[in-house]
Design brief:
The protein is of the alpha+beta class. Helices cover about 30% and strands about 15% of the residues. Among the domains are: about 1-60, no CATH class; about 60-100. The protein has helices at about 45-50, 60-95, and strands at about 1-5, 10-15, 25-30, 105, 110-115. This is Mimitin, mitochondrial.
Length: about 140
């Protein structure tokens, strides 16, 4: 038996009920029907869970709206916490409670403070991945 439903964006969804040997199939016709333009997360997670069989009933419009507002509230709270943390960190830097981070430049596998321009030496030098061969002149013929 095939059941047709619709989500809050007007996208049709079909459910083919389970028979003896055939597992139930669920499909959604997305508003953006080209496969190469599909972005993971473009289908609400409630619909994704229903399509994959992790929930028995498709989500209601009320449930989708409630979950969307909840996600927006979480994003706002996270932004507020991050702003408070940055303000507290700046205050601690000003008061001298915390040392400001040193400006380091990654060299090799360890971070080291950069002391200006690197100069090419005549002798071979090596620091992790930055091997520089020294200059070489062939010796006199024997």
């Amino acid at each position: 038996m095939v059941q047709k439903q619709q989500d809050e964006m007007g996208e049709p969804c079909w459910s083919v009920t389970e028979r003896r040997l055939v597992r139930a199939k669920r499909m959604v016709v997305a508003a953006n029907s080209t496969e190469y333009e599909y972005i993971e997360g473009s289908i609400p997670i409630e619909w994704d869970a229903w399509i994959r069989g992790r929930r028995k009933e498709p989500p209601s419009v009320e449930e989708l709206l409630k979950n969307e507002t909840y996600r927006e509230q979480i994003k706002l709270k996270a932004k507020e916490v991050e702003e408070k943390d940055l303000a507290l960190q700046a205050k601690e830097y000003e008061d001298g409670l915390v040392a400001t981070p040193a400006k380091t430049l990654a060299k090799g596998h360890a971070a080291a403070t950069s002391f200006g321009k690197e100069e090419i030496s005549e002798d071979p030098t090596s620091t992790a991945n930055t091997f520089q061969p020294g200059s070489w002149m062939p010796g006199p013929k024997k």
